[in-house]
Amino acid sequence: MRDFIGGLPKCELHLHIEGTLEPELKFALAERNGIELPYASVEEMRATYRFDSLASFLTVYYDGMRVLLHEPDFYDLAMAYLRKAASQNVRYVEMFFDPQAHTGRGVPFDVVVRGLTRAIGDARRELGIRAQLIMCFLRDFQAEYAMATLVQSLAYREWIVGIGLDSDERGNPPAKFAAVYARARAEGYRLTMHCDVDQENSVEHIRQAIEDIGVDRIDHGSNALEDPKLVAAIKERGLGLTVCPVSNSFVVDGIKGAEIRRMLDEGILVTINSDDPAYMDAYVQENLERTQADLGLTEAEVARFEYNAFAIAWLPEDVKDAYI
Ligand code: ES4
Ligand code: ZN
Q1: Residue 37: helix, strand or coil by DSSP?
Q2: How close is the Cα of 166 to the center of ligand 1, in Å?
Q3: For the whole model, what pTM was predicted?
Q4: 143 inside domain
Q5: 222-266: per-residue pLDDT in tens?
Q6: What residues have their beta carbon closer than 5 A to ion ligand 2?
Q7: Alpha-carbon span 67 to 191, nearest angstrom
Q8: Which of 120, 161, 275, 304 sits in a 20 to 30 Å window from 96, CA-based?
Q9: pLDDT tens track for 68-116
Q10: Residue 23 Cα, ligand 2 centroid: separation in angstroms?
């Protein structure tokens, strides 16, 4: 089964590029940029990559970004990830990035986008892997700040395929960003957002995302299964759900296997993804292996995740045909 999964052409749709910062690279970038880290070794740093909730994860995640300052840092980050992904037979990636987590520290938007897109270009030529960027807004900041970032992004429109929403969901419902999403749609961006597992108001947040905002897909979103009307809407509109099993196991109890099983049975376009692989120690191959083992899936069922992923990918149909 490991070889079967290894051989599958794969598509990663829920991947935070800042969440791919491995301790070794963090150390190297800190040294290059003259940043003092409070750890004596990679092992000591890896020991701090521990958390049991979204809040404790986000603290480690934002701290890691301090070493990302210059264009080559973003290039090296994305190139290291794309090499790893290509080694797992990932053919196409839609990569989230958090511009506000960088511009808020004084790193220009331009530096971030140039570094990431230069890596995407080189990886396509050198490794044959294709990638596009999804710009995420930090939902625990004001909607006006997200709107200003959206306007700033328009100069880079050709490099960014869509928008997303991440960070702390608690008290930050989709409706808060309705105007930002309306403007993004008008500018031609594709729309997704996180509806994390087992939040305070998960079902209502998913309802807002689908009915009020009109998203094209949902990141996580497994609580939709609690409301038959949402299940019907997801199927009717062909909305994809980008589920992250190993990430789930860090922030809630288990990978949400029963929910993944039910999504497959319902014919929902569910996909398996890695979220923040450097912190969760599992790239897409390991996420698929874990899901297969826990649920006892057949090869055909595992392959379904990748058919689904290419089906909901934001690529022209004729380009997709080459992958499927
Ligand atoms: C994230 Cl796991 C998770 N949830 C919300 N926002 C995030 N950003 C990066 N990883
Ligand atoms: Zn995520």
Answers
A1: coil
A2: 6
A3: 0.98
A4: yes
A5: 999 999 999 999 999 999 999 999 999 999 999 999 999 999 999
A6: 275
A7: 29
A8: 304
A9: 999 999 999 999 999 999 999 999 999 999 999 999 999 999 999 999 9
A10: 19
Among 14, 61, 137, 219, say which to mutate for ligand 1: greatest number of ligand atoms within 8 Å of CB.
Answer: 61
Report if residue 37 sits inside a domain: no
Contacts (Cβ under 8 Å, ≥6 apart) of 262: 225
Q: How far is the CA of 169 from the centre of ligand 1 (A)?
A: 9
Residue with CA at minimum distance from ligand 1 atom 6 = 167
User: Measuring from atom 5 of ligand 1, which residue has the nearest CA?
Assistant: 167
Domain count, the chain: 1
CA-wise closest residue to 164 among 174, 154, 172: 174
The CATH number linked to 123 is 3.20.20.140
Q: Which of 40-49, 187-196, 220-229, 261-270 has the lowest mean pLDDT?
A: 40-49
Q: How many CA atoms lie within 13 A of 34 on its CB side?
A: 0
Q: What is the pLDDT of residues 211-223, one digit of tens each?
A: 999 999 999 999 9
**Which atom of ligand 1 is least distant from the CA of 276?**
10
What DSSP character marks residue 296? T
Decide if 42 is inside a domain. no
Which residue's C-alpha comes closest to atom 1 of ligand 1? Answer: 167
Return the minimum-mean-pLDDT range out of 10-19, 48-57, 102-111, 171-180: 48-57
Task: Give residue 244's domain range.
Answer: 2-22+74-321
Q: What DSSP line would sit under 120-166, residue for residue?
A: HHHHHHHH--EEEEEEEEETTS-HHHHHHHHHHHGGGGGGEEEEEEE
The verdict on residue 67 lying in a domain is no
For the chain, the average pLDDT equals: 97
pLDDT over 80 at 324, yes or no: no
The residue whose CB lies within 8 Å of the most ligand 1 atoms, and thus the one to mutate among 167, 169, 281, is: 167
| Model ipTM over 0.85 | yes
